[in-house]
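Final report, closing paragraph on structural work. Over the funding period we assembled a curated collection of sequence-structure pairs, and we close with a single example.
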Amino acid sequence: MSNITIRINRDLWPAVDRDDEIKSYSHSWDGNTVRFSDGGITITCEVEISEEEQARLVNCLVKEDRSFVPTWGTLTLDVQRTVQRIEKQVWTVACFVDYCFRRSPKGIRLTSLKLPKRHVNQSQAFPVMQWEFSEEEKERLIQDRNSVMIPFSVFEHKQIHMLAEEVNEVFEHIDNATEVPPYWALYGIAWENFSKNKSYDSAILILATSIETALKSCLKENGDKIANYLIENMASPSLDRLYLCAQYHTPHNFPEHFRKWLIQLAKARNFIAHKPREAQIDVLQIARWFALGEAILKAITDKENDPLVGYLIKPVGERAEDNFPPDTRGVVLRREELYKTGEESLHVIFDSGVSWYFRENTYSKLPKAQQKLPDVE
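Its predicted structure, as stored:
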């Protein structure tokens, strides 16, 4: 068993009797240990990693330059799968510890749990966990280090570059907008919880609220006084029926096939909100819901969406086997123009924890029978 550690920064400190006193608490259970001190909350998990996996990990994570910070892109395909298994165990324990601290009256107001990050410079930081070597592991793997960082998988950590015409459009909004609808900020909060905090339940609840609020706002803008009164004072119809109303009663282009995905999103939202137990949700399913959420917001502003948005694709071509495991699938987030080349590409998010740009003839849409993703149960 290997010891994997993460540190959570929290606005909590042990109470002391004297200013120079330092207190630290520790508790162990089921192969896990939590330590609470002025330095924050440190969680250590015993994770089963075979010797073969350990050797491959060290080969990817350790370089002669000690300032080297491993990122997801430095991992080989087989190591990526190993790290995903490790991080799932560690993050599950971290979320459980966070929940237990929140149950304290003084922990209720804590901010959302975030992945611990290591800064490599002023502008870049990557989420990492720490592999603390045992004496046996040091002797067998690497004798001059006590620990090494392991990167978390993170979705869509690409920089966003705005073209001149896009910036000018923002300035036009500044001159002409009269109010700030809440659904834009709600979508951003939901995306942060999904892509950066791995807080999937929170992400789904906020995303569903963002889409519902956006559709209501859209209907209100295009309705008469009676419609506006009903929207403001009556209980909402189901999310898919609200979407259907927006399809028929607004001038915006809302694709028909989004409705079936909204039905699944509504089921997941209701499960999380009304059933007091943990839900297991495929990350590709959540990615699909975010893709359609983004597409709905773009449609409201009369921006065009690619017909493939939300669909599952697989990499094909000569480089597919070198860059992706054989069972890799991805969800199309959007089609966008690459600012350096001006080339249009599909931006796809994968279950392996990364997003990629795909030119034509480097991807294949999965057949209809393989597009179905499981409902939340």
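The chain has a mean pLDDT of 85. Residues 79 and 348 are 21 Å apart (CA to CA). We thank the funder for supporting this effort.
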